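thread: overnight batch results

M.L. [08:02]
morning all. the overnight job finished for the chain we discussed friday. pasting input first so we're all looking at the same thing
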Amino acid sequence: MLRSFTIIAVLTTRLVVPAVAQHVSDQDAWSSGQSMAQAFSKASQAKDAAGVAALYSEEAVYVTPDGPVFGRAAIQRHFAEDFKFFTPEPAKLDRVAMIGDTVRLRTGSWSGVVQGPNGPMRVKGYWGTTDVRDGDTWKIRMETFNMTMPRHRTRENNAGGCRNVPPCHRTA
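M.L. [08:03]
and the structure it wrote out:
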């Protein structure tokens, strides 16, 4: 009987100690989340699609307004294509939240310039990721982003103008 209790105590200790040792503090979560955001910004500003894709897990999903992109290789091709007409600015990290010790949620904002048929156009939006621990590093398992639309003109923010329109057609 004593032997059974000893085995249970040893197994319990071996299971609990690694979990306690892996606890991620809020400060560590923010620091590692910020490091990943900086690595993403550095690679994307260099228009390094392979460098950006390396931050994603092999089975990652990148959800775009045009639909999801599945897998690291497809994500790399997606960024390589986008970098032909999009010049990103540094991403901003707004929030980091841990779910246990191996899953992290991050949110932030992005901006950049798109080269369109009528010249350059500034764009911006928000992003969110679910990151997973992969050994000693973190990888993006899923990312989604949106693009914010220009504000509609209203009487309140467009003195003498029209309400809820672009373009604003006014009659005298």
